[in-house]
Write a structure and sequence with these properties.
With 370 residues, the chain is an all-alpha fold. The protein has one domain: ABC transporter involved in vitamin B12 uptake, BtuC (Orthogonal Bundle). It is built from 16 helices and no strands. The chain is globular, with a radius of gyration of 22 Å.
Length: 370
């Protein structure tokens, strides 16, 4: 009983530290409700927007006819095909990728207690990029075996394997070179990222013009290859991360007091670090594998949600998943319509929009502290 009271007081102290100079305009429940409604509105807008416009009434008719609520046939079969085969899978993939990047970014910022932390710090993105470049450039028997089973998804499979392998190396190296603490892991991540980045750069330097073009477009990110198979393949990885990450929120709140203090209050730091790294790798690795490198979502979205929610991870993690899905759905809609009939790589758009917005958030936080 005394121990529970101590933990409760410590958590309240951690929240007080985290909430300094923060004014919460809305309750977390309202913000989650608002984000859910906004996400639904973004989905409806996105599936209806494009070269072939589909109105809200037509979307409702297509869905109700498909699930058997209406016997009225669709007048324009082309719109139904575009909706089910092209638009909806792409929007669903955008939701999954955005949610995965958002919740992983929020969790890693909490773990490292670093507002600029994201998946690049533990090698997920760099590892996926290296293996993707290797697959694009090298045609050896091993990849022939993968092609036999993975088919068109060889690149995605290899990128995910690279993300997982690099993250595992960073984690193991942090235990070998130090005490396995967050700071040691961060330093090992920086070192491995530099090494893997150098290998990727060397491979890119040796690439032919055709290979270089493929590498460039992959690293810029795109949801253009979305289909239901891709959505189904990524859903379990992102779903596991979104489902289990919020259970770590209480431990992340206590971590605000510091690693040693959190450990004294019953937080198993080894399990916490391992859980967050595994879940973040599952979400980000699978997202990068199917969509390429999409920057700033995992960095900016948690800051946006934190400015609305506050820093309580019980709401921040879920809010970041919603926020990431919203941001990437809107960004993808813009990327495929702004230069139609061509398509602007979504990674370019998120960086162009994310950079000034991130700077504005920093400026606004400084103004509120004054």
């Amino acid at each position: 009983m005394i121990e529970e009271e101590t933990i409760t007081k410590a958590e309240q102290k951690a929240q007080k530290i985290a909430h300094q100079n923060f004014k919460q305009p809305l309750s977390p429940a309202w913000v989650i409700l608002i984000l859910g409604v906004v996400l639904l509105a973004c989905v409806v807008f996105s599936v209806g927007t494009g070269a072939l416009h589909i109105s809200f009434s037509e979307i409702a008719g297509i869905v109700s006819h498909k699930i058997g609520l209406s016997d009225t046939p669709i007048l324009e079969e082309q719109k139904e095909i575009v909706f089910w085969v092209i638009r909806l899978p792409r929007v669903c993939l955008g939701i999954l990728v955005g949610a995965g990047l958002g919740i992983a970014g929020a969790a890693l910022q909490g773990l490292f207690r670093n507002p600029i932390a994201d998946a690049t710090l533990i090698g997920v993105t760099s590892g996926a990029s290296l293996f993707a470049v290797i697959v694009i450039m090298v045609n050896i028997k091993f990849f022939g075996i993968i092609n036999e089973y993975a088919g068109a998804y060889t690149l995605s499979f290899s990128a995910f394997a690279g993300a997982a392998l690099t993250t595992m190396i960073v984690y193991q190296l942090s235990k070998m070179t130090g005490d396995g603490g967050v700071t040691t892991m961060l330093l090992c991540g920086i070192a491995i990222n530099a090494f893997v980045g150098a290998l990727t750069g060397m491979m890119t330097y040796l690439a032919t013009d055709e290979q270089l073009r493929t590498i460039t477009f992959w690293t810029l990110g795109s949801l253009g290859g979305a289909n239901w198979t891709t959505v189904i393949s990524i859903a379990p990885f992102v779903g596991v991360s979104i489902l289990f990450m919020p259970y770590l929120a209480k431990s992340l709140n206590l971590l605000v007091l510091g690693e040693s203090q959190a450990a004294h209050l019953g937080v198993n730091m080894k399990i916490l670090k391992r859980s967050i790294i595994v879940l973040a790798t599952l979400a980000v690795g699978s997202s990068v594998a199917v969509a390429g490198t999409i920057g700033f979502v995992g960095l900016v979205v948690p800051h946006i949600i934190r400015s609305i929610f506050g820093p309580d991870n019980r709401y921040l993690l879920v809010g970041s998943a919603f926020g990431g899905a919203i941001v990437l759905t809107i960004a993808d809609t813009i990327s495929r319509t702004i230069v139609a009939p061509a398509e602007l790589p979504i990674g370019i758009l998120t960086a162009l929009l994310g950079t000034p917005f991130f700077l504005y958030l920093l400026w606004n936080q400084k103004r509120n502290r004054v």
